[in-house]
Amino acid sequence: MYTLPFTDDACRDVRSVGGKAAGLADMVAAGLPVAPGFALAAEAYRHYLAQHGLVALVNEVLDRLGRSRDQGAFEKAAAQIAARLRTAELPDDVAEQVRTAYRRLCEDIGVPDVAVAVRSSATAEDSVGASFAGEFETWVDVVGEDAVLAHVRKCYESVFSARVMSYLAEKDISPHAIEMAVVIQKTVRARAAGVMFTLSPTSGDRSKVAIEASWGLGLAVVGGEVTPDRFLVDKVGLGIVERTPGRKLLEYRRGDAAVPVPAERQDLPCLSDDDITALAQLGKRLERLHGAPQDIEFALDEELPAGSDVILLQCRPETVWSSVPRKPAFDASAGMMSWITGSISGAPTGGSAVGHQHQSKAS
Questions:
Q1: Residue boundaries of the structural domains of the chain
Q2: What topology does CATH give the domain 3-186?
Q3: Who has greater pLDDT, 90 or 290?
Q4: What is the CA radius of gyration of the chain?
Q5: Is the distance from CB of 208 to CB of 196 less than 8 angstroms?
Q6: pLDDT tens for each residue of 109-142
Q7: Distance separating alpha carbons of residues 10 and 12, to the nearest angstrom
Q8: What is the pTM of this model?
């Protein structure tokens, strides 16, 4: 099977469906709120490349590119590959399975030709060691079987975009190390959306949850087109310890274009206190589920009732602060009593101060 519903345990295999799809399947298995959909496994991508002899074509173009780091050379190479990919149809068995899964999704939701998001889910994406967050593409409000198939091919093309190939060359990674799975998921009708980190992205403080959000779909936040509202929440008591109003002048009501935010809503917070608390609770659950700080995308679906309108769109490991070594607050070699007295007096114990700090190296 090339297509897998999020409820299928096989959809939790990152090697098969990529980090994005596996993360969604993990959340479904944990009973967390996710918009319904399915994944197209990376096996379909391999089948597509093999059927059209595309691996040899890509190798030929990359050989001509050599070790060039000139952006113009990447643009030229990407155009050559894209021209060939656009004439290569999906294999018949892959296309039929996607059509069948899309029809089933429409039936389950009760909406003919339901609008979906088609999202790249590369097998190497979102790993802690080599984060590809933001390098691949997502399209929303895709309607109909033919349009879904066309956007699956766009996901495949995105592996060989100039931006991605330049990024891979910088990391000394071959494009063939990336295999593209695809997520097809009901488009969320977001009244507000954004990102959440289960630590402070500015300080690395793991006792906090940081939330950034704006009106409409999350495209404006992720794309940096607005200054979002920012909230910092204490993990223990779930109190909101900081509020920073944003500058929310535009929003995406649909995926095609941004529209101005009405003046009366520009300065209003896009999330209520109840929304913020509910998000922080979900963030804590996801951090416990994965055993590490998480970077989470979310939306509040205006088609759902208050209290059940928070939808999780994506979850991946946080990659900046999670890689910074943390010094333990208690030095076992110094003894418990030494640590207690040091904590009270503020004196260092066992050669190090209580707590942890981030130190910069001299260059």
A1: 3-186, 190-323
A2: Dna Ligase; domain 1 (3.30.1490)
A3: 90
A4: 23
A5: no
A6: 888 999 999 999 988 754 434 455 556 778 988 9
A7: 5
A8: 0.75
- DSSP one-letter string for 14-45: HHHHHHHHHHHHHHHHTT--B--EEEE-HHHH
4 token code pair: 């897998």
Neighbours of 352 (CB within 10 A): 14
The pLDDT score that the predictor gives to residue 222 is 80
Residues composing the chain: 363
Cα distance between residue 28 and residue 318, in whole Å: 20
Pick the CATH number of 190-323 from 1.10.10.10, 3.30.470.20, 3.40.50.10490, 3.10.110.10: 3.30.470.20
Residue among 118, 127, 114, 191 at smallest CA distance from 157 = 118
* Residue 118 dihedral angles phi and psi, to the nearest 5°: -110, 115
Span 206-227, mean pLDDT?
Answer: 91
21 has a pLDDT exceeding 90: yes
Q: Does the structure show a pLDDT above 80 at 256?
A: no
| Rounded Cα distance, 310 and 336, in Å | 44
